[in-house]
């Protein structure tokens, strides 16, 4: 996947933090995969530091197929923290945007 700018990564974390409070999130590869397959995800965020990489390889392709924006971020620890978890997570999907709608729109256009 293409390198994502630091600014775009920060906006993705921000969208997750806002959606956590005002919308709805799905966390973890299995949950995220299910909601992408059903076309429910508005934005998918994947951590780059997941090992083995095969765990997540299907998600960007699935997102592309379903026309869902997919963004890679640096760390699963930061992703877990943005999602309000006390632990790292490899993938998060925003299912209901809440007040993060404008950020998601901005990210999907860039």
Quaternary state of this entry equals single chain
Beta content comes to: 15-25%
Topology, number of strands: 4
Low-confidence runs: none
Quickly name the level 1 CATH class: Alpha Beta
Proportion in helices? 40-55%
Tell me what the structure shows.
This protein has a single domain, classed as 60s Ribosomal Protein L30, Chain: A (2-Layer Sandwich), CATH 3.30.1330. It is 46% helix and 17% strand. It contains five helices and four strands, in the order αβαβαβαβα. Helix 3 links the parallel strand 2 (43-47) and strand 3 (70-73). The longest helix is centred in the first third of the chain and has 17 residues, at 6-22. The relative contact order is 0.28. The mean pLDDT is 94.
Give a short summary of the structure.
The protein has 110 residues and is of the alpha+beta class. Helices cover 46% and strands 17% of the residues. The chain has helices at 6-22, 29-37, 58-66, 76-82, 101-109; strands at 24-27, 43-47, 70-73, 91-96.
Features:
110 residues, alpha+beta, 60s Ribosomal Protein L30, Chain: A, 17% strand
How would you summarize the topology of this molecule?
Elements: H1 6-22, E1 24-27, H2 29-37, E2 43-47, H3 58-66, E3 70-73, H4 76-82, E4 91-96, H5 101-109
Parallel strand pairs: 2-3
Antiparallel strand pairs: 1-4, 2-4
Helix pairs in contact: 1-5, 2-3
């Amino acid at each position: 996947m293409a390198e994502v700018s630091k600014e775009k990564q920060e906006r993705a974390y921000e969208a997750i933090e806002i959606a956590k409070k005002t919308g709805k999130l799905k966390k973890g590869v299995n949950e995220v995969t299910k909601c992408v397959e059903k076309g429910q995800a508005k934005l998918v965020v994947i951590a780059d530091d997941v090992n083995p990489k095969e765990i997540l390889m299907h998600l960007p392709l699935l997102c592309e197929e379903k026309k869902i924006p997919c963004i890679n971020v640096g760390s699963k620890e930061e992703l877990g923290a943005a999602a309000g978890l006390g632990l790292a997570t490899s993938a998060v999907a925003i299912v209901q945007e809440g007040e993060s709608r404008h950020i998601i729109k901005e990210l999907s256009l860039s």
